[in-house]
Design brief:
With about 400 residues, the chain is of the alpha/beta class. About 30% of the residues lie in helices and about 25% in strands. The chain has 2 domains: about 260 residues, L-amino peptidase D-ALA esterase/amidase, CATH 3.60.70.12; about 100 residues, ArgJ beta chain, C-terminal domain (Ubiquitin-like (UB roll)), CATH 3.10.20.
Length: about 400
């Protein structure tokens, strides 16, 4: 349609960064008895800081450090499954003690991906120097990086930044650390919460190259709770959150999620708290999808198998036609039927029809749209959160390095 122009829905953009508390999505239920604290204040026993080393322009913070002061810590670390994983991912896999990580060093502005042996050596140097600054051993310091792929890391500048960040470490360093991990994010994603006698703080980033199995996303969680099986807990919470989002269907080279628990409170983590926090952070990432103004949730029910439900849900969530309909508030349910049929190509599928598709909110004036599809093939279901697709996504990614 020549000459068609449309301004992104300003009301949605404003609501998408609402300040009405941390648990602001319709799809996340805050645990009972939750108290929201200043996200600048970390969970007791943790300190963080940030500094500028030159990776990002304008003097913006681009190196961050976070550390647990307790000598004994329980931790879990989840990393991207991308076969072309970045250097920091390979260092974490091969050189870090996943169950005993006391610190993490992060840079934003350079992914240190596709940088060969030198990139690996640089990521290892970041971990080693950070550990030395904190009086730790290298395996106790995880390393994460995010930014442009294929650019050599200016290591000397980053190491100077690590020293600067170490000098700023504070129990009130949550904001500096969360700012240090941002790239194309339009707002920080962070929280500090108290419930059941424990405190949990978290910081995340992500806006593009999102899906599947986490995203171009980093997430760091700290708590003074007692956690018996950190790996199982983090995997379950991540499966229900970061592994259920998509912005553009692209798997990142740098995904990292780190959970650290000091156990200092002597209390267990309240049931459902970690999952609720990660779910809200995941939706914030989708909401902040590059150029996005609306968020959708597709739920596929009555599928013949769990794998089928997942396949159809992701096909719909990643369909450019469905995503642009979400952007334009076009209740075009035929695009949902088309995407579902394509996901099941070669199989017998009766016509779905409007009676099996709930698409009213696709065209409604709501920032979070619920969409449903009933396949009539069995009893399995799956859901995925996704962003719309508008002009700004194309502009940002067409000019990303220029």
């Amino acid at each position: 349609m020549s000459g068609f122009t449309r301004t992104p829905p300003e009301a949605d953009a404003k609501r998408s960064i609402s300040a009405d508390g941390f648990f602001r999505s319709r799809w996340v239920e805050a645990p009972d008895g939750i108290e929201e604290l200043d996200p600048n204040h970390l969970a007791p026993g943790f300190r963080a800081g940030g500094a500028h080393c030159g990776l990002k322009g304008g003097g913006r913070t681009d190196v961050g450090l976070i550390v647990c002061d307790a000598e004994e810590v329980t931790s879990a670390l989840l990393l991207t499954r991308n076969a072309s994983a970045a250097a920091p991912i390979r260092v974490c896999r091969e050189r870090c003690d996943h169950g005993g990580i006391r610190a993490a060093v992060v840079n934003s502005g350079n992914a240190n991906a596709e940088t060969g042996e030198q990139g690996y050596a640089d990521a290892l140097a970041m971990s080693t120097v950070a550990a030395k600054q904190l009086g730790l051993e290298q395996p106790q310091a995880a390393v994460a990086e995010t930014g442009t792929i294929g650019v050599p890391l200016p290591l000397e500048a980053v190491l100077v930044g690590i020293a600067k960040a170490a000098s700023t470490l504070s129990e009130q360093g949550g904001n500096a650390f969360s700012d240090a991990i941002l790239t194309t994010d339009r707002w920080p994603k962070r929280c500090t919460l108290r419930a059941g006698g424990v405190t949990l703080s978290a910081q995340a980033k992500g806006a593009g190259m999102i899906e599947p199995n986490m995203a171009t996303m980093l997430c760091f969680v700290q708590t003074d709770a007692v956690v018996e099986d950190a790996d199982a807990l983090l995997r379950a919470a991540t499966d229900a959150s970061f592994n259920r989002i998509t912005v553009d269907g692209q798997m990142s080279t740098n995904d990292t999620v780190l959970l650290q628990a000091s156990g200092a409170s002597g209390q267990p983590l309240p049931e459902g708290l970690l999952e609720a926090v990660l779910k809200q952070l995941a939706i914030e990432i989708v909401r902040d999808g590059e150029g996005a103004v609306r968020t959708g949730r597709i739920e596929v029910t009555e599928a013949g198998s769990q794998a089928e439900a997942e396949r159809v849900a992701r096909a719909i969530a990643n369909s450019p036609l469905v995503k642009t309909a979400l952007f334009g508030r076009d209740p075009n349910w035929g695009r949902i039927a088309q995407a579902a049929g394509a996901a099941l190509a070669g199989e017998e599928l009766p016509e779905l029809g409007a009676e099996n598709i709930d698409a009213a909110e696709l065209g409604a004036d709501v920032p979070e749209a619920e969409i449903g599809l009933r396949l009539g093939r069995g009893g399995h279901s799956a859901h995925v959160w996704f962003s719309d697709l508008g002009y700004d996504y194309v502009k940002l990614n067409a000019e990303y390095t220029t």
